[in-house]
Structures are given as structure tokens and as C-alpha cells.
Task: structure prediction
Amino acid sequence: MKDQHVHHFEHTDVKVGVYVCHCGINIASKVNVHEVVEFAKNLPNVTVATEYKFMCSDAGQDIIVQDIRSGKVNRVIVASCSPLMHEITFRNATQHGGINPYFFQMANIREHVSWVTAEKEDATVKAKALVAAAVHRVSKHTSLEKKYFPVNPNVLVVGGGIAGIQAALTIANAGKKVYLVEREPTIGGHMAKFDKTFPTLDCAACILTPKMSQVRSHPNITLWTYAEVENVSGYVGNFTVQVKHKKRYINADTCIGCKACVDACIGPENIPDEFNEGLSYRKPVYMPFPQATPSVVIIDENSCYHFTKGGCPPDFSSKNGHLSPQLQSLLRRANECFELRDFQETLKLTKEILKSSPEHQETLFLHAQTLYQLGMINEATEVMRNVMVKERCVAACPKGSVDLYQTEAISEIQVGAIIIATGFKTFQGERTTQYGYKRYPNVFTSLEIERLVNASGPTGGEIVLRDGKTKPKSVAILHCVGSRDLHSNRYCSRVCCMYSLKLAHLIKERTGAEVYNFYIDMRTPGKGYEEFYEKLCHENVHFIRGRAAEVTDWVLSKAELGKLVVRAEDTLLGMVRRVPVDMVVLSVGLEPQTDAEEVRRKFNISCSKEGWFLERHPKLAPVNTFTDGIFLAGACQGPKDIPDTVAQAGAAAAEALALIDIGYVEMEPNTAFITEENCSGCRICVALCPYTAITTDPVKLISVVNPALCKGCGTCVAACPSGAAQQNLFTDEQIFEEIEGVLEYV
Amino acid sequence: MSKPKIGFYWCASCGGCEEAIVDLNEAVLDVVAAVDIVFWPCAMDFKKSDVEAMADKEITAIFINGAIRSSEQFEMAELLRKKSQFVISFGSCSHEGGIPGLANLYKKEDLLSTVYSTAFSTINPNYTLPQTQTKVPEGIATLPELWETVKSLDQVIDVDYFLPGCPPPVKLVVDAVTALLSGNLPPKGAVLAPDKALCDDCTRKATKPEKLQHKRFYRPSEILIDPEKCLLAQGLLCLGPVTRMGCDWACINGNMPCTGCMGPTSRVRDYGAKALSAMASVIDLNDEEEIQKSMDSIVDPVGTFYRYSLATSQLHSAIHTNGGK
Ligand SMILES: Cc1cc2nc3c(=O)[nH]c(=O)nc-3n(C[C@H](O)[C@H](O)[C@H](O)COP(=O)(O)OP(=O)(O)OC[C@H]3O[C@@H](n4cnc5c(N)ncnc54)[C@H](O)[C@@H]3O)c2cc1C
Ligand code: SF4
Ligand code: SF4
Ligand code: SF4
Result:
């Protein structure tokens, strides 16, 4: 028909070997392997057809190698499991035999046939069809070569929680350069908020802060906080990443964390402190928490007067003409120095004067003017800058680090591998309305309690009610809030049972209150976890097996007066209970970050349907993603505790190191290519490529595929309206042969 | 030595292809001088019996335009095949079924009922339909039978070459005849036109943006068309990317988008499917509802994407009978 078959590729002297695997009984119990072999013998070009118990075993592979070496076959079909399992194995065997590894084709008669087909007869027919398809197709295979690209040895770690910290340190200690990008003003993540960690109850800060400062001082780590990845392009081994430095209004390189600015700041003091879950207040300029790393303050433009009112209001405390003797002498000295042309000293004094009295701008302004007339532009500018200053923080900073005119900056870096460690967010307590969070002041989330029990928290470790002083005499801890719940998240958040036990212990220890844990079932599968639970059982903590139905202030008895009542069915007692308490703690579950979808898209990785980043294989590639060179660490991949997070971070670091240590990446040749003589340059393909691998040749005005970027997704091949884009191992000819193979014999 | 014998025949076509032969103007004179036209019922008085009287393969080349949809057309095609060395399928209808091929969307009885009864301009109260045999006083009058489906020429007889286009461009016809006369022939089955898409040397190519992306398509009547800019870039459904070049931009230069008469390149099996996927690729939307709305801006998708090729597409026809053949 028409001239479609005019462009035939000549395949002469094809000799196909078909090897059907039993896979123990995985295949053989459903597929009549012998019948498939007999069938294969009559297929075109087949010179060998045989069966074996385990083709993937050394002995199985050897059959292939020998048949190739003895010249019996020059194309290989293995009918066995999925290509994901053993394609590499058999390609290697094919190559070992002495022919191009791509003269091999796999027929998946396990996952696609024996495991999913009920009747033996049907399974055998299907297996034959797939073998026929493979035989037809392999005759059209051509020899292909893998490609190699060099790898940039630097690594980017995104997210500075314990996962990111661990991964960055591991890689940096191996002598590789790491960029750690954290979007908050400090690293530490959730762990930095905890007082103690289960099950050992060791102090979180004691184990975390040393790691944080190691990150800060490590010569191989460039730490960028309050920064976000803006754009990622490139491919495994060669990513180009743009990092946006958000406006912190402080020069992070020079700030020494003395907090003079915080002391001097006259801005509002009632801004809810994010780090303390809003349980305390801060000024517009603040240090997130005492051990913040880097130890650099930040200015919040939503509350700072400079941004909300156009500047700090003038200082009315010192009136003109009422100069303190100290200020008078300062002014006198400044004038002297100025006359003596000692501008450095003038400048120093200027700053000092302004610190205590910005009213003396006029004198200083005159100095600046004179300097300008003398042509000493730099000095004049410097004095002017000080004259203009009315913002207290600017005046107070001994390092000149406050920069209220800071703009966003972009750094562009080249890295070979990327580790994503963006963590999680906690479930919002108010979403389970029946528990009254934000309606009843004394309902708290677990994260709030973590801050309350923390010695460096808002109350110095005192557990008190929302009024800030009363110690609770009874506390209910509700497990599984926002977890294992059809109305919110079906999954188990894995850490809540354990941290609920931890909080029960800490509350008991600090307040002596009666503590009631309402749980569905206790999940403590971890080293030392069950023992921890047992220990709690002996600490007089009450355990009520039953998910709490509601928290209410509707009292039914005198004993309940002024209390919050937790209603639940105690499934051990088989009755509904009402437990009056002073304080309720919601053990909120873990959820993907709000911007997980955006991050997913930026890095071109996948998400599970809940929004957790998807690993390539849950067992065999748990830290890999479907994008080569991008790895996952910590809770961004799914709820997990600190031990698991740290282990996974180590694994991600090892994968990244393995990649950059080899120094090159090997690329499968199944990439797309555009035949120059066939491409019309219509550009339909250009915008479609999800990996931006296609560009237009500016001279020839046709499209070109960058094989390093092409992932072989086939989008352009399917879309190319004139058949100019084709894909190695998936040419139209090969695919149509395969289809014909399926249809011809069945 | 006797001159090569050439013939032209028409089947289900509009007559435009015959017009195209006349359009060869001066070029046709050279052709006429070089050959003997032995059969051209449209222009000269030849009868079927004249052909029947010829020896097998006596005609050097027969150019057949139009689709095949009746018993008579099929008989003539078979007869001409027998009498000719080369059969050249001429024009879109013969090549791919053409516009008549769109009849394959309907059943024969529906077509007849539309034409002979329900059409606005038809008055036929007794619903008289054409019959293959009708008794008249003089005996039995016969008419050819209308097939259930429309076929391209190569679906009914062996075809040597294809001249695409609606109608085929003059230059390609002259090249084809020259090639035939000189014996300098491409492999059998070839489409006698360049094997690249129209965008390749389109007069508007320089104005094509790096990335083609639209929210919707426009019909030519909906916008003022810029006479210089790539039509696809203007949101018009230009099928240039899908269609073989060689038309000398007849439509493009007339400020109209390409409708695909030259058919696909050799590497494409189903023109309409490719056209649809190419145009859908240009839609830059993610929301399903919006995508649907945008695709709804394409009036008559089958008629647009399969305008010339429904009969030879993978879809073939609405009915699965092998109507008449
Ligand atoms: C109340 C509570 C108590 C817990 N107690 C314990 C305990 O006692 N013991 C235990 O083992 N586990 C405990 N856990 C679990 C523990 O918090 C996690 O295992 C751990 O924090 C996971 O670390 P991570 O680094 O993966 O994520 P995170 O700690 O969430 O850190 C992620 C970091 O990435 C940053 N980030 C996010 N998105 C971006 C972005 N786009 N760009 C740049 N940076 C970004 C964040 O700002 C953050 O700093 C508890 C959890 C909760 C909720
Ligand atoms: S005064 Fe300067 S150095 Fe000190 S904390 Fe503030 S900005 Fe940093
Ligand atoms: S879609 Fe095909 S013809 Fe068009 S530019 Fe891409 S490769 Fe070339
Ligand atoms: S899409 Fe149409 S107008 Fe644009 S370059 Fe192609 S043929 Fe020309």
C-alpha cells in the first residue's frame, strides 16, 4: 500500500533464539511452557526454541551465551518476567555472547500472563502471542550503543530538616561540595522544635544542634537559608539550578547574631512567633530561636514599620537642645575629626551619635555636604547614609548588616545530583471540627505541646493552659487526628502513637496530671518502641482503646463543670465514656507540604495520590525517584520518624555519591531522534517535550533532540505529524511488527 | 517508433482533476505531442468498447481520478488495469478516497434517503430511488449499483503510482509524465511528491514561533488573517505540519490554511489521527473542561482531519460491511 514500505531496513540472515522460562512454578504452573516452545519453533527466523527452569540463573544465561557463540542465533528472545526485573541481565548475557545487547527482546509472560490469568489455556495462548510479537519485532532491531556523559561532582540538598542536614553532612564529609537550600530562616526543621525524642527521650537539641553548627561551618557546605529553588533544568549529572534568595533584609554573610537590632527595634512586639506555634510573641526583627542556624536575624516586612509605615517613627525621648554631656562630647569630637580630615573617625562617630540621637542629622548633613564639595564622594555617601537613618535596627547594627532595601537575588549553580528533603507539615487540628480546636482554647495540637514542654520554649518548659499560668490537672491525648480517617487521610502517620506516648510521659513528669490516651490501636513497631509503651503503662497513664468521638464543653454533671469532656467508646469496656479534662492534646498526623505539587513539578518527579513524593520502587529503590539523579530523603517521601529519616538520608547520600563518584552517567540508547531529511520544522514537537530536550536548529530550521536530555518518553514520536521523529527500540516499524506478531497467530 | 499511449479516466470525482489536466496549458501541448491520447471520455469521444478492443498492456499509462463507489467505476478500473502498463492514481479522491470518502460516515440507505427525500431541495413524495434495473417499454434499463462504502483506487486494483492533491499541482503532473516518458521511475507504490511536510519550505515559516501553543482554534471567518504570519501561529487549523509539500502553497498564498489534500508523508499511516494529535498537541491547557471547550472550537472534527482520507484511514467506514466489493 502506497509507498510506506519503500524505506525498508534490510535485515538479512536473522536467527532468533527463543528461551522460555518457567520461573520455578511462577510461570510454569499457569503457562504450558512446552507448548509455547513448540509453537515458537515454527515462527519466522526462529532457529532455537527451548525452555529452562530459571533463565536468569547463571546456567540459564549460559545457554544464551553458548547459542550465540556457536552461531546458532543472533537475536535473542527471553519469555520470562518483566523488563524491570531482568532486561539488564539478559542484555548483558546477549552482549556476553558476542552480539549487540539490543538484539534482545523480552516477552513478559509472568506479570502480564501467569500472574494475572485465571485459566491455563488462556494463559498459554497469551504467552504465545507475546512470544510471536517479540520474535517479529526483534528481527527489526538494529545495533545500538549506550551514551556516556560526564557528571558534575556537586550536590544540591533541598530542605534543611534532619534529613537534609544528615545527607548534606554525609556528602560533605566524603569531600564533595554541597549546596543546602532551606526556605525558612534557619535549618533544623521539625526536630528543632522538640524537647525530647522517643523512644530514648534524649534531648532533641543536644543531638541536633551540633549537626546544625557542623553544617554551618563545614568547608564543603554552602548553606543558603531563606532561599528557594526557582528553576531546575538539565539532566542527571548536569543539572542547572537557580536558587532565589528571598528578602531577609539582613546581610546574612556579615550578621553576627548579636541581636542589637532586636533590642533596638521599636516595632510592635505582639507578632505571633511561628517557631513557637504562636504561643509567644516577637518583634518585626527577630531570631527564630536561640540556636537558629545560621545565627542571623530576619526582618518580617509584614510588621516592620519601615514597610508598613514608611519608616520608624522619630524618637521623641531626646529633645533638641537637651543634649546629654556624653552626646555633646561626641558631637564635638566628630567636628574636630572632620576639621582634621579624619573621615574614617568622623564616620565612626557619626554612627555612634545617630545611635543615641538621630536628631543631629543636620550637623552631620552639613559635614556630608562639605565632603561632597571636596570631591570625597564615597565618604560623603557613607555619612549621608547614616544621616538618613532613622530605622533603629540600622543604626544599632555594629556590622551595617541591616539592609532594608535588599532585593531578591538569584544564584545559579551546577550540580550532578539533587536530594529532596522537604519534609512534611502537620495536619491542621481545626479540620476535625468535632474536637473543637480553635473553638475551645484548651485544645492544643501536639506541636504546641512540643513547644510548651521545651525548656527553651515560650514557657521555659512549663505546661500550662491557654491562660499562660494554670497547670492542667488532667490531660487527654487523642491519637490519630487526621490519620486513619476516611474524612481526612486514610494512611497511618506512623509517628503519632509514639510521640503521644512521649508527650504523655513528659506531661506526667512535669505536671503530675492524670493523662488519658485515646487510641484506636497502639502502633509501636520499632526498636525499643514496644518497651517504651510498656514503660508508660507502668507510669499510671490511662489508656482508653477507642477513637474519641468528640470534645465538648456541654457538661452533664458537677464533676464536669468547667472542663472539656472527651466522649469515646471504650472498646475494651464496651461502653461509651465521658472523660472530663482540663487540657486536650490532638496528636495530629503528618501531611505532604502544601507546595508539594509545585516542588514535584519543578523537579520533575512524581507524587503518590496523597501527595508524598514517589520513590522509584518501594523496596528496591526507596530513595530514587523516576528522574535519574534526583533522590528523596526523610518525611517528604512519607511519614517517618527520626531514625528512619536519618537512615534514609544516609541512603540518599550514598546514591548521590555513587553517581558522582563514577564521574559519568550511562544513558540508555532508547532516545528519540529526528531525521533531518524528514523533518519539516513544523515545531509541533518542541513545546511538547516534558524534558525540554527539543530545540530548533536556527540555521536549518528543523528540530533537534538533545540525547542527553531525552528520556525516551516517546511524546514527540507520537506527535510528529510527518513521522520525522522516531525512537530507538520503538521505531514505527518495530512496533507495527510487534502488533502484527500478536495478531497473526492468535 | 510509435508514441506511448496515455489515457485519462474519472470515477467518483468533482471534475476538478480533469480541469487540472487542461490547466497544464502549454505544458500539455508538449505532452500531447509526445504521446497518443487513446482514452479520455471527459474530453474526447471514447467508448468502453474502444478499451475492450485494445490488447492487454497496450496503454502505457492510465491516469485515474476519483474514488470508487459504484459497480461501473470498479469495472472500468479493472478493465483499465488490464489494459495498462502503469496505473497512476490521480488526485486526492483516487489516492485516499477524498471528499466522497466522507460518505463512509453514513449507511447507504441514509445517503439515499437524504438525497432523494429529506434534503431541503428535494420533492419526491413517492420516494422513488434509482434502481439497477428498471422495466421500460423498450426492455430493461440498467444503472450501475452504488456501493455501501467509498474506496480509494488502490483498495480495488493494483496501483503503480500516486499523484496527490486536490487537484494535483501542475508541476508534479509534468514531472510525473516526464519521468514516465523517460523511464526514470521511482520504486513502485511511490507517491510522486516530495516526502516532507508543507511547513518545510512554507513561505511563512520564518514567522513560526519556537513554541506553538494556543488556548483555542479559529475558523478563517472568525479572525482577520495576517497575510505574512504562520497560520498555525495565528490559531488557525493549518494542517501544513501533517501534509506533504509540493502544492506550491496554493492555499497558504491565498491566505487560507492548509486542509491536507496532499495527504500524509510516507511515514504516516493514518493522516487524520496524526492531524488530530498534532493539532491537539498545540492546545496549551491542563484543565479537562477547558480542553474540551477548546476542542469544541473545532467544528466537524472528522470532516476537518479526515477531509480527504477517511476511506483509507484505520477507521475505514461507519459500517463494517465490505459493500459491493
Ligand atoms: C509532634 C511531633 C513529634 C514528633 N516527635 C518525634 C520523636 O520524638 N522522635 C522521632 O523520631 N520523630 C518524631 N517526629 C517525627 C519527626 O518530626 C520527623 O521524622 C522528622 O522531622 C523528619 O525530618 P525531615 O527532615 O524529613 O522533615 P522536616 O523536619 O519537616 O524538615 C523539612 C525541612 O525542609 C524545609 N523545606 C520544605 N520545603 C522546602 C522547599 N520547597 N525548599 C527548601 N526547603 C524546604 C522545611 O522548612 C524544613 O526545614 C515527631 C513529629 C511530630 C509532628
Ligand atoms: S545587629 Fe546586625 S549583626 Fe547583630 S543581629 Fe542585627 S543584623 Fe545581625
Ligand atoms: S514534529 Fe516532526 S516534523 Fe515537526 S519539527 Fe518536530 S520532528 Fe520536525
Ligand atoms: S503551519 Fe501552515 S502556515 Fe505555518 S508554516 Fe506550516 S504550512 Fe505554513
